[in-house]
Amino acid sequence: MGNILFPHDAAVHEYSTGLSRVEVARNHAINFTVVTDISINEAIDAARNMFNRC
Predict the structure, then answer these.
(1) CA-to-CA distance for 18 and 5, rounded, in angstroms?
(2) What is the reported pTM?
């Protein structure tokens, strides 16, 4: 299995459970990486750099 990536906002607590997605995953022994938040311009540049690899 490859790396599991969680979005930067996965630490937000859900109203229904009071737990974040990060906490739920860790409670189920799921290993993952939370990616850092980047600006729109950085995201656009990253996508442009990936196009030549597709």
Answers:
(1) 22
(2) 0.59
